[in-house]
Amino acid sequence: MSVIDSEINFNGKKVLLIGGAGFIGHNLALSLKAKGANVAILDSLHVNNLLSLYDDVSAPKERTLYEYMINERLSLLRNNKIDLFVEDGRDYHRMAKVFSIFEPEVVVLLAAVSHASRANKDPRTTLDHSFRTLENALDNSREKVRQFIFFSSSMVYGNFESESVTETSSCNPIGIYGAVKLSGEKLVEAYGRVFDIPYTIVRPSALYGERCISRRVGQIFIENAIRGQDLVIAGDGKDKIDFTYIEDLIQGIELCISNHKSLGQIFNLTFGAAQEINSLATIVQNEFPGISVNYGERNPLVPERGTLDISKAKELLGYKPSHDIEIGFKKYISWYLDMSKNFNLNSNNIVESQKNE
User: Once rounded to an integer, what is the mean pLDDT over residues 141-166?
Assistant: First the structure.
């Protein structure tokens, strides 16, 4: 935890996290609560959450493992007295009721189908969960909130035009997910202009950390390694990605909430230094000797990425990420090993190609 991060005190500020029972949201809720904020969550528990586990009957052992993680999230929220409104964000009137009850000062919109590959396979569901929830959240925020924070993605940039991108770089998404996120940004900006809603847009990248069930590349690497299975990379592994540990992202969001300089701005909130996927695999191999890496065909819908320049967040907000993959991913592996002692992962042979962030 940075010095700046530890000094933040929210003094009862009321923060509503829409989609807040997910990986990012529950970690953010716990940190905000610890710093004195009054936090509430609106979440249907359907999208990449508890109820979604029962839509997929193909991996019962994974379901048991991920159910354990999600129940741990919910227990942490309950033990820290964080209110959870189990409501569907697509229902305008149910959301309006939560706004009326809680009266948030800050709204953080996290709800979305959170993967490029899933978005490309099921655009209807992606659009439904993303745009309807966003529109409802924006409309309920009119003349009520002091700040609306929208979670976008590094995917809005599409193929990076250089080794690093700034917030003013061209945005040319190549898939459904990136297009939806960029469209969401434009809608937030439009509501900001038309209805004078103070907003902040953040663009994270390649998140990883505790109690994530999203099966991104790092999680798949760890689970395969625990089972003694090979790691599988789509492509030659030289693709560079700005891997970001959850604690660094949380620090950035809290700085956005605590600093008025964030209003009306877009921020890259990542570690700020891309690493090859091969480097991530090497860390896993060092922790699990004897594990091999296999390479497959690269997905053409995965953009060629690199570093997200975080100079703006550093200069305006004092953002100081501290977890490169040597630090953050080793912490993640350690947590996963400790948590997985309750499960016989070695008996479940799953080898899966790299998922998109």
Answer: 96
